[in-house]
């Protein structure tokens, strides 16, 4: 179990080893259920089912919207899988980000499975300064590639592997600085630094929860003060989630009405 004095590599987590072999592309929709080891999460109306699968000794985490409402999976689910698969492909090889294996179909993708637990399962005092330094390096690597994660405030999106090293998962909300439709790019370029700053603040929030003694005075001040930009970003994200939830709820209601 990871502890506060866990020994790290020379690069403090920046040299995570990649899996020796890639997930065979023989994993398809037709045989997916034959390779399931266990269900990691059954999801919800708006969240994908997460499965642990194994093919020829290689384990993968599969994110799958196939069992969601038909209209939701054909629109939001399909779009989320498409953009997340593209983000994993773009970041493939970045230390601390699961390796991308392949997109199974329009509703599902497979990525490297990280043995360990997420930070919501960690107790205060369990993670030391080396862990947070390594996590900061992962986020810095994302930002150097022009990507803001945008959802690091969820403890479940940060995995502690069996060696006590951090990994960042779930790129569904991630944004590229120069990505998106051409008319939206000026707005994205203006918003992106604020999203990136929010990623950094999320690390401080996690530190406050699990290792408050490691917070610097500057980090404490940042946590106590919310800027107008941060309030705007929170409103945008909350509105987007409500729209997605509304679409899912309508789809579920329509399905029940037909039943």
Task: Report on this structure.
With 259 residues, this protein is α+β, with helices and mostly antiparallel strands. The chain folds into two domains: 32-112, Phosphorylase Kinase, domain 1, CATH 3.30.200; 116-225, Transferase(Phosphotransferase), domain 1 (Orthogonal Bundle). The protein has five helices and ten strands, in the order E-E-E-H-E-E-E-H-E-E-E-E-H-H-H. The protein has helices at residues 70-91, 129-144, 185-210, 217-224, 228-258; strands at 36-41, 49-55, 58-64, 100-105, 108-112, 116-118, 147-148, 158-161, 166-168, 175-176. Strands 1-2-3-5-4 form a five-stranded antiparallel sheet, with helices on one face. A hairpin with a 4-residue loop joins strand 8 (158-161) and strand 9. Helix 2 runs antiparallel to helix 3. It starts with 35 loop residues before the first strand and ends with a helix. Mean pLDDT is 85; it is low at 1-17.
Briefly say what this structure is.
The protein is α+β, with helices and mostly antiparallel strands and 259 residues long. The protein contains 5 helices and 10 strands.
Q: Which runs of at least 5 residues are low in confidence (pLDDT < 50)?
A: 1-17
Q: Output the CATH class name of the largest domain.
A: Mainly Alpha
CA distance, first residue to last residue: 48 Å
Task: Count the DSSP helices.
Answer: 5
**H and E string:** EEEHEEEHEEEEHHH
Within CATH, the superfamily of the largest domain carries the name: Transferase(Phosphotransferase) domain 1
How are the strands of the largest sheet arranged? 1-2-3-5-4
